[in-house]
Design brief:
It contains five helices and three strands; from the N terminus they run E-E-H-H-H-E-H-H. The protein is α+β, with helices and mostly antiparallel strands. Strands 2-1-3 form a three-stranded mixed sheet. Helix 1 crosses helix 2. The longest helix has 13 residues.
Length: 103
C-alpha cells in the first residue's frame, strides 16, 4: 500500500487550478488539480512550475503513456491508495488495476 507523502496532503482549496493532461495515442484528456500533480510528481512539478510552456497553458501531453495507467495514477493521487472494491471504488477501475497490476 502507498505511503502518504511526508509533506502531508495538499489542500485543494490552496490551489484550485486545474491542469489538462492529454495521454496516449488516442489523446485521452484528464482534468486534474494542479496542486495534487505538483505535490506528488517531480515531473509535473518541473513542467508546471519551472517556466516551461506547460506552466502557461496548463496542459501537459504524455503521448507515450497509456491512458489506463494514468487513470490509476490519478486515482492514487487523490486517494493515496489503489482502486479497491471494498472501498466502494468504481468497478471498472478496480478491474483495470486487478488486470494489470494485482499479483
Amino acid at each position: 500500500m502507498a505511503q502518504p507523502s511526508p509533506r502531508g496532503r495538499p489542500r485543494i482549496s490552496a490551489n484550485p487550478t486545474f491542469t489538462i493532461v492529454i495521454v496516449g495515442e488516442k489523446e485521452t484528456k484528464f482534468v486534474v488539480h494542479e496542486g495534487f500533480l505538483t505535490h506528488y510528481s517531480d515531473y509535473f512539478r518541473a513542467a508546471l512550475q519551472r517556466g516551461f510552456k506547460e506552466a502557461e497553458t496548463k496542459t501537459v501531453t504524455l503521448k507515450e503513456e497509456h491512458s489506463a495507467t494514468f487513470e490509476l495514477f490519478v486515482h492514487w493521487v487523490y486517494h493515496q491508495r489503489f482502486p479497491d472494491a471494498s472501498e466502494g471504488d468504481d468497478g471498472q477501475l478496480v478491474e483495470l488495476f486487478s488486470d494489470n497490476f494485482d499479483s
